[in-house]
Amino acid sequence: TQLLEQSPQFLSIQEGENLTVYCNSSSVFSSLQWYRQEPGEGPVLLVTVVTGGEVKKLKRLTFQFGDARKDSSLHITAAQPGDTGLYLCAGAPGNEKLTFGTGTRLTIIP
Amino acid sequence: NAGVTQTPKFQVLKTGQSMTLQCAQDMNHNSMYWYRQDPGMGLRLIYYSASEGTTDKGEVPNGYNVSRLNKREFSLRLESAAPSQTSVYFCASSRAGVSYNEQFFGPGTRLTVL
Predict the structure, then answer these.
(1) Cβ-proximal residues to A59 (8 Å cutoff; 6+ apart), any chain
(2) Where are the beta strands (DSSP E) in chain A?
(3) If you count residue pairs, one on A and one on B, with CB atoms under 8 Å apart, how many are there?
């Protein structure tokens, strides 16, 4: 089983601060996805990265795929209370099953 | 479009009881999945169906069975529930083979086994 470890597990910061969460594995993935999950709901896809070194931006969120395609990071600029949620990374070794990380629970304090 | 729907939203069972969790998608996706989510463990794959008529075991299949009834519907059955099956269950679907297997999730079923 390929493992994806996310850090930190919990993060609580003030509104307006910047933050980075990490997703690491010893395995290579053909693509990597980031999902956000709000309480009582299912995960919702934010972005997919597929090329080593790729950087994608989604408003204040910046996603990067490692050069070796084993790790990824999510950077949030000027965090807002609406960013609160559980962030999950998920790697696809091929074209079927995803392996999910353990998640980072983010709380933005107004 | 409703996307992925799941029923029921909440369920309490006694040890040894059986139940079926229902899932349906209206996106014409080929692949469907059942996950369980436990604190600190992320999402773990129970079973998946790459296409209508096929099912395969995931990471944690013991104690569960599935049926891919047609392209839209994928059900998960607990034949004899155990307290260790207390969890939140999510169904997901994807087109598979397209868009790098991006998955769309239902709202979840919160199951408690006493």
Answers:
(1) none
(2) 5-7, 10-14, 19-24, 31-37, 44-49, 55-58, 61-65, 71-76, 85-92, 99-100, 104-109
(3) 60
Q: Residues B17-71: pLDDT tens digits?
A: 999 999 999 999 999 999 999 987 789 999 999 888 899 999 999 999 999 989 9
Cis previous bond, A110, omega within 30: no
**Residue of chain A minimizing CA distance to B37:** A102
Of A1, A45, A90, the CB nearest to B59: A1
A101 touches chain B (CB under 8 A): yes
Q: Return d(Cα A106, Cα A87) in angstroms, integer.
A: 7
* Nearest residue, CB atoms, B100 vs list A9, A31, A44: A31
Give tens-digit pLDDT for B82-114: 999 999 999 999 987 555 678 999 999 999 999
Residues of chain B positioned with their CB less than 8 A from the CB of A102? 40-42
Q: Tell me the sheet residues that pair with A23.
A: A6, A72
